[in-house]
Amino acid sequence: MPAPQQRRIIFKHIDEAGYTNDLACYVRHGGYEMLKKAVAMQPAAIIDEVKKAGLRGRGGAGFPCGVKWGLVDRKSGKPIYLVVNADESEPGTFKDRYIMHQDPHQLIEGIMISAWANNVKQAYIYIRGEMPHGARILEQAIAEARAANFVGPNILGTAYGCEIYVHRGAGAYICGEETGLIESLEGKRPYPRIKPPYFPAVLGLYQCPTIVNNVETLCHVKHIVEMGGDAYAKIGTPNNTGTRILCVSGHVQKPGYYEYEVGKITMGELLNEVCGGPLPGRKFKAVIPGGSSAKILRFGETFKLKNKDGTERVLTVEDIPMDFDTLAACGTMGGSGGVIVMDDSVNMVEALANINAFYAHESCGQCTPCREGSLWMKKITTRMVHDKARAEDGALLKSVADQIAGRTICAFGEACSWPTQSFVAKFGDEFKAYPETKNAAKPPGALDLV
Amino acid sequence: MIASPKPDLVTVNVDGKEIAVPKGTNAIEAARLVGVDVPYYCYHPKLSIVGNCRMCLIEMGMPAVDPATKAPIMDPATGKQKINWIPRPQIGCATNAAPGLHIRTNTPQIKDCREGVMEFLLVNHPLDCPICDQAGECKLQEQSTGYGRGYSRYIEQKNVKPKRTQLGPRVTLDDERCILCSRCIRFCKEIAKDDVLGFIDRGSYSTLTCYPGKQLTNNYSLNTVDICPVGALTSTDFRFKMRVWFLKQTNSIDTESSVGANTVVWSREGVIYRITPRRNDDVNDTWMADSGRDLYKAVKAADRLAGIKVNGADSALDLAVAAAADLLKAGSVAVVGSGRSSVEEQFLTKKLAAALKAPAHLVSRVGEGDRLLISSDRNPNVRGALVTGLIAALPTQKLSALAAAIDAGQVKTVVSVGEDLVAAGLTAAQLAKVAVVYLGTHANATSAAAKVVFPTLTVFEKSGTFVNQQFRIQKFLTCVPGPTGTAADAVVLAKLVTAVGGTAVAGDLGSVWTALAAEVPALAGLSFSALPETGAPLDATPFAGLPFVEGETLHYKPAAKTAAA
């Protein structure tokens, strides 16, 4: 059975020959027509369309965008801010960068439509510190759009205006957490805020109601305005609407970004057919489906899921449709769409050591379990790989991770503990065997450092 | 007194016990009220909530209601309203009392949470308790005992951080002990308004430090040591001096100004080692100024007066009292009382002045207030002098009235209760014109010139009361005995009153208070022993019109000045 075709909405023009990221090219391709359409609509009507579309956030948590907009405190008398989360930092995810680099005006149009819908007068694009090129492109694009009266005061001859500012981060993963991002935007250390009471929709940027949306999410808003919420909701699968960009990296023949209707392609189709299967002579061993913090799946494991009619179905990893709900039901998540593939050349202890090093480096250090636990897990796996491994380290790792998840200020607690929990749960045999395999591999005469 | 409005009470349930608490009370405080301990590190009742230590995790639930009808959903098993428990543990510090809030602290999940946080806090902690100043009053120690697992699974290298950073002139930091609770940062920002502390680096390598080029120099810096739950911030003065469990704690009052911050004086075998603040939500919350913590050094100062003298020669108390009485009975006496004296001493000073028909003066001390816990009136007890009737008007600058009287030849003898008349404003020539009877603790120009000198006691060596700027009477207690050759001011004053023919009164606290309660209207019905540890407000209305010098401080707002005519 051939794999389904990509359905490119966001990336419609990105790979077209001659498509450039300047305003003229964007307008030639119908750009900013939807903004013109939007400002002729009632703001509440746009919010309704987004709700009808069932658009779910593409940043990681998959929270319904319309619901998020609905939570905004509109009676406070304070300004409402729109903050674009362009701090794409999850290892394995590289979609927002392409949008900003190749099609920045699509993002700007999405921002302006969303700003109009929510009566936002100031929007901020918080872009990851490691993307200076993207920041320059955005600045340039905003300047063009402002000159063309798509951004700034009195857009398109209306009384409405909204400014967009680009703010560069300083290189911290935690700035992708929305309240950490807000703190950083305010000029502080990006310590995520406690919720309650600091829900961004009520007490966000400068203690004002704030909407924080992912880059890709805002781009979808443009297309919802174009086709209408009901039509958009028909794309994808129920409760998993629209398209999403899957970023495939690791041990496949053809890594890259692929845009599919949500849930219309399975993991097996994606990896074996779209991405060309494993490298020659290798076999798939494991895949992380939604960025490095998502729980890993082991090829060969099966999942028993309940159907709506009460019957059960059994899925292999290859059978899992790439949507939000099924991946969640399989104990992992669609996350940010970063699909990381590992084949049988990978040692799982070493892979986890790599991931743990990342999360220990990125823990902001605010709250105890994540701060101490992430570094402890890193020290354990580093010791296992570079020094002396013990048979009981797997169990210890799991116990440390269990003491973090669910007990921290922000979701980083889960992000740093889910890899460890899932690696140990699914590859416990490798963790147990690792001391012996490693000691066997140790060159003769190597020092025993512990 | 005006009854304070009743707070909006809500009923919450803590581990099955119901209690009514003001709405918004957090779960830690609500639990405290029913005797349930919720451990915490970063929470502080007087600072903002950050929820970073995660030690106060609790299970939280709310009564179930039908989403459509809002009708309560009953639990058939118990016959009571069903409770919807949130599966994730919540932080107690940020869980505020709402009607029907249920919290559980005694479940396996919470036990596991606390064990986890305790273990995490200790993995990179140096565990150098044997030589740590915080040992004995360390929250890590207490809560390890109460809530930890009791063993370590950590075999990795611990993080290495700076061990002795001098953050400022009075505070030394051991970063390895720091658990990054951020109390000190919040204190400097929110209370001291001197935002100099912060973290650098991230994750477990986060390190507390001052902003580049700045120091923790503000006069409240030692409060960061008080609120540090571990041994990270230490007092440079107290560091390595004494194990805290050997120290006796005595309640006292800061004498720096009319604020009257409540303090605890820590002593062992007659030697004071440190002074820390004592919580009083109406006066100083949980804070005090650094400057007040140094005052104990006066006790052992080299210039401490140590022998009763008559005309420069050693004498004995009764002989000196007789010699003083001879001077005083000659007439033309003025009495200089002190705003640093206790209410009891001022009362006896007034009796002495009355017996001698002598005018009473008070020395004014005015400085700049810091709007927090040091007021412009640097006397701790001017209002005591008003309440006891020692003075009727606020003291004038520089003893000008007394100086004029001396120059006019109307005053031949001056009794000074603890005041150096030269420092207070008299010239050396004016001082030379009068015979002086001096009661005081330290040598100065007045004690050197005095005919009779009674060495008396510092505030740390006696008990008594002060009336602060809010007309709150607060008591201080004897922390250490006075040195040989000293006598209590009240005893000397009582003997003088008797010797000059006034109504005989004894100088012990009980007798003085019997007289105070009988003779001073504002103190009627009060007794020293029954005064609460946090003091009692007195009726201030008789003095409402006086132009007090204090500006605003933490819990004091000056009466609105009437517009100048």
Give a brief outline of the structure.
Chain A has 450 residues and is of the alpha/beta class. Chain A is 41% helix and 14% strand. A 5-stranded mixed beta sheet of chain A has the order 8-7-13-9-10, with no helix packed on it.
Describe the structure in your own words.
The complex is a heterodimer of chains A (450) and B (565). Chain A is α/β, with parallel strands linked by helices. Chain A has 18 helices and 13 strands. The mean pLDDT of chain A is 95. With 565 residues, chain B is an alpha+beta fold. Chain B folds into three domains: 9-106, Roll (Ubiquitin-like (UB roll)), CATH 3.10.20.740; 125-241, Alpha-Beta Plaits (2-Layer Sandwich), CATH 3.30.70; 309-543, Rossmann fold (3-Layer(aba) Sandwich). Chain B is built from 14 helices and 24 strands. Chain B has helices at 27-33, 108-123, 139-147, 183-191, 222-227, 317-329, 343-356, 382-387, 400-407, 421-424, 428-432, 445-449, 489-499, 509-519; strands at residues 9-14, 17-22, 57-63, 83-85, 90-91, 102-104, 165-166, 171-173, 197-200, 207-210, 233-235, 248-253, 262-268, 271-277, 309-310, 313-314, 333-337, 360-362, 413-417, 435-440, 452-455, 464-467, 472-476, 536-537. In chain B, helix 12 (445-449) links the parallel strand 20 (435-440) and strand 21. Chain B is elongated, with a radius of gyration of 28 Å. The interface between A and B is large, with 35 and 38 residues.
Question: How are the SSEs ordered, and which strands pair?
Answer:
The complex is a heterodimer of chains A (450) and B (565).
Chain A: H1 23-28, H2 33-39, H3 43-53, H4 65-70, E1 81-86, H5 96-102, H6 104-117, E2 122-127, H7 132-147, E3 163-168, H8 178-185, H9 200-203, E4 210-214, H10 215-227, H11 229-233, E5 236-237, E6 240-241, E7 243-250, E8 256-261, H12 267-274, E9 284-288, E10 297-298, E11 302-306, E12 312-316, H13 324-329, E13 338-343, H14 348-362, H15 368-386, H16 393-402, H17 412-426, H18 428-441
Parallel strand pairs in A: 1-2, 1-4, 2-3, 7-13
Antiparallel strand pairs in A: 5-6, 7-8, 9-10, 9-13, 11-12
Helix pairs in contact in A: 2-6, 2-10, 3-6, 5-6, 6-10, 14-15, 14-17, 15-16, 15-17, 16-17, 17-18
Chain B: E1 9-14, E2 17-22, H1 27-33, E3 57-63, E4 83-85, E5 90-91, E6 102-104, H2 108-123, H3 139-147, E7 165-166, E8 171-173, H4 183-191, E9 197-200, E10 207-210, H5 222-227, E11 233-235, E12 248-253, E13 262-268, E14 271-277, E15 309-310, E16 313-314, H6 317-329, E17 333-337, H7 343-356, E18 360-362, H8 382-387, H9 400-407, E19 413-417, H10 421-424, H11 428-432, E20 435-440, H12 445-449, E21 452-455, E22 464-467, E23 472-476, H13 489-499, H14 509-519, E24 536-537
Parallel strand pairs in B: 1-6, 17-18, 17-19, 19-20, 20-21
Antiparallel strand pairs in B: 1-2, 3-4, 3-5, 3-6, 7-8, 8-11, 9-10, 12-13, 13-14, 15-16, 15-21, 22-23, 23-24
